Amino acid sequence: MIDFQLDDRSGVATYLQLAQQVRHALRLGLLEPGDKLPTAKEVVAKLAINPNTVLKAYRELEREGLLVVRQGSGTFVRTSLAPRDQAELVELQQRLTDWVAAARRAGLIDEDIEAMYRAVMRKDTHDTEELHDTRA
């Protein structure tokens, strides 16, 4: 089951944080089709938020086709976002975990690591776009 966490400093609306955490869990294979999500009441008890916030997140994910609500039974995962090669995903996640540990040993803090990640992602996106432009 997913364990929701909130970042009050992120500036991101609470319902969007919840929805994003479900998407991430789907991408990582932590949630699979048929898995039941916590009820709004359970999330409210853990996070001390308005039940409508949880319901709004779940409705958004339902509109995206990721969840299905079964009246009286709960909210369930409808589809996965995980890559087909789960073994490769596990290997990549371990390599990333090792890299983050090395970065912390080198004295980087979370903000430094995130800045590096975003810079690499931007460069990779830019390089990929340039490659497509030269092929066109």
UniProtKB/TrEMBL annotation:
<dbReference type="GO" id="GO:0003677">
    <property type="term" value="F:DNA binding"/>
</dbReference>
<dbReference type="InterPro" id="IPR000524">
    <property type="entry name" value="Tscrpt_reg_HTH_GntR"/>
</dbReference>
<feature type="domain" description="HTH gntR-type">
    <location>
        <begin position="12"/>
        <end position="80"/>
    </location>
</feature>
<protein>
    <submittedName>
        <fullName>GntR family transcriptional regulator</fullName>
    </submittedName>
</protein>
<keyword id="KW-0804">Transcription</keyword>
<dbReference type="Pfam" id="PF00392">
    <property type="entry name" value="GntR"/>
</dbReference>
<keyword id="KW-0238">DNA-binding</keyword>
<dbReference type="GO" id="GO:0003700">
    <property type="term" value="F:DNA-binding transcription factor activity"/>
</dbReference>
<dbReference type="InterPro" id="IPR036388">
    <property type="entry name" value="WH-like_DNA-bd_sf"/>
</dbReference>
<dbReference type="InterPro" id="IPR036390">
    <property type="entry name" value="WH_DNA-bd_sf"/>
</dbReference>
<keyword id="KW-0805">Transcription regulation</keyword>
